[in-house]
Amino acid sequence: MPRDASSFDAEKVLAVCRDRLSSYKVPAELVVTDDIPRTGSALQQRLTGESS
């Protein structure tokens, strides 16, 4: 994760993934968020595809 969010380029990340990973492992999309949701016990909450 870059320290400066303006330097993040999703296309570059996907290009590296395509270059280094098997095609079925390349993500279909990237989701950029400011923070990772956490549970009450401060564990990372599993993403279900829906925001709560």
Give a description of the structure:
The two termini are 24 Å apart. 0% of the residues are buried. This protein is mostly helical.
What is the topology?
Layout: H1 10-20
Give the H and E element order: H
What is the count of DSSP helices, taking H or I runs of 4+ residues?
1
Mean pLDDT: 78
Pick out the low-confidence regions. Answer: none
DSSP strand tally:
0
Structural class: mainly alpha
Largest sheet: none
Radius of gyration from the CA trace? 14 Å
Relative helix content: 10-25%
How much of the residues is beta strand, in percent?
under 5%
Shape: flat
Distance between the termini: 24 Å
Give a short synopsis of this structure.
With 52 residues, the protein is an all-alpha fold. It has one helix at residues 10-20. The radius of gyration is 14 Å and the shape is flat.
